[in-house]
Amino acid sequence: EAGAKLDIQRIDIGEKVYLAGNSSGIEPSSWDSLRSTKVFLKAPITTPQGGGFKSLNVTVRKTLGLYANVRPCVSYSPFIETKHPGMDVVIVRENEEDLYAGIEHRQTDQVVQCLKLISRPGSEKIVRYAFEYARLHSRKKVTCFTKDNIMKLTDGLFHKVFDEIAAEYPDIENEHWIVDIGAAKLADTPTVFDVLVMPNLYGDVLSDVAAQIAGSVGLAGSANIGENIAMFEAIHGSAPRRAGQNLANPSGLLLGAIMMLVHIGQSAIAERVHNAWLRTIEDGVHTYDIYDEKVSKQKVGTKEFGQAVVERLGKKPHTLKAVAYKQNGAAGAFAEETIVKERSDTKKELVGVDVFLDWMKGSPDDLGEALTDVTPGDLKLTMISNRGVKVWPGGKSETFCSDHWRCRFMSQTGGNIDHQQIINLLSSVDAAGFDFIKIENLCNFDGERGYSLDQGE
Questions:
Q1: pLDDT digits 0-9 by tens, 237-250
Q2: What angle do the packed helices 120-136 and 154-166 form, to 10 degrees?
Q3: Catalytic residue positions?
Q4: What integer is the mean pLDDT of 210-224?
Q5: In whole angstroms, how far apart are CA 265 and each of 1, 177, 219, 335?
């Protein structure tokens, strides 16, 4: 209706495909369509719970390298209720790694694990994207949220990369917040933030929070940007209980489509649609989720809302700020900026090994004594922990222990060890009847410890 120049290819994804027997939620042939167009608008989809079904959202983002998830969260006061009338925050979420790697294992009868993976290349790409986005859109500040006071290596790396890259953008203010107090500040005073960049899980949670406190999570669109391909969608997930009833608010998907138009260089059309949408909101034509008798004038269904936007094409809002997109304001990948420098000179030293055991036959002292007896003479058992707390030597009787034990072995001489020593150790542990479930090598990088200490160690 607005004149967008689009040749649309449609593919089926989600529940229908899952239930047809494809556990990935997408037909193999559909990947060719996505890769040929390089741009797609994705509806909210339902992933069946349990049963080994993987999230298609995560699969698509990671398979196609869509590393940057951009989620604007804007208030539309006084036409949509919010406690934060001046809120205009953009959350830039890392989209490929962190806990969303989805690498999980049941390791013992009592304990499961999920691996949190943070990489320097992944961190460099998303942080640089956030600063480039801020510069392109005339934003003044980029704020980083992490929890590196606890996760000193993973979140610590993300924070370190943020500081390194921030120094390259002296024209943009930068700051770092611990995520818990940062989230509290975001909920209480979002106007102090501008662009926020954060690892995957925090970004997922807090962009929903930010969208909701701005007015409604149903209003927010989302861009997923890669160096070659981009996906656009609503922030919100599927709502099967609303399907087919002409009730759902289409605004999130429409605003995602507007972001898509900007990305492919049709900024004038995007501006035309966005301003018509703002005028519709301003005129009080609202779906049930944002309808308020104090300000709304007409409660409409999904189709009627869309038609109301069409009727206002060419109009601009009176009270809300009209949008004006740069003609070349694509939220592109800045590919030339995101090439991560190779490092070949890092000195890596193997200094020990953590052996994880499935064991429930006695106390920590019993385990420490038994392992000391079977440890080869060139290694020594230095510590045993349970759920991250040191329990041997010198553990406390009050500490609750599960059946999952981390046993740390280091060189007797305090120097480096080799893989053969680890193999010999595992052979001794196995011969003594212990069930080891995994190992983690302990390494130093350029003389800096590359592993965490346990609480109390």
A1: 787 888 889 999 99
A2: 40
A3: 100, 147, 180, 204, 208
A4: 92
A5: 18, 35, 23, 17
